[in-house]
Amino acid sequence: MPSFTIESSYRLPVFRHRTYEAATIGDACRLAIADEDWQGQKEDYESAGPTFLTGVWPGVDTAYEVPALALPPGFAEGENLPVPDGAASSRSVDQLAAPGTPAVLPRCRHCGSGRISRDANACWDEQTQSWSLLAVYDSQTCEQCGADSNHLVDWFPVAAPGTTDAFRWDVIEALQMPTLADDADFRAFCGEIHASQTIEQAAATWRNRAPG
Ligand SMILES: [Zn+2]
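A: This is the predicted complex of the input protein with zinc ion.
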């Protein structure tokens, strides 16, 4: 069997905490950006990005020793491997969407709601006269049920409005049972009653026939 030497990489944020004296928050932000002294920097392993590949060479221990091979599609930074079929295909939170990738949204693991917010930090930009996003933190909050955690969500494809899939998610949210996303019986149930029942009726019907 042939051997390949592969260079894998991931992005690791580095941060520092330093106080700046300035007349405005905008001035302080500019001082922080211009500050090139990174003594005492720390690595933010919790926010490390996904692994991607940056080189492939034929043979054992051959990196930069022999001509590189072309990387197969789906392995470079920002590229996604094909997502397996099925609505519950989870994807990593910070994966960047490549062109042509189906749109996804985060949903609360507790109630299934797609109304998720993240803590962030913005500062006033005097040039554009608007708040400009400085950082987005890991902490996520569900606006529906109030749950709060760094690992609150799973990622699901966006359901087009009016489809059975969108209806199914509305019923899941009404029932607050995100585990139903993987349930084949529930999927069939929603397909059958989509045209004839409201979300509330469907939730009640399912609740009455679900064991327990
Ligand atoms: Zn929730």
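Residues 164-175 form the longest helix (12 residues). Helices lie at 25-34, 164-175, 184-193, 199-209.
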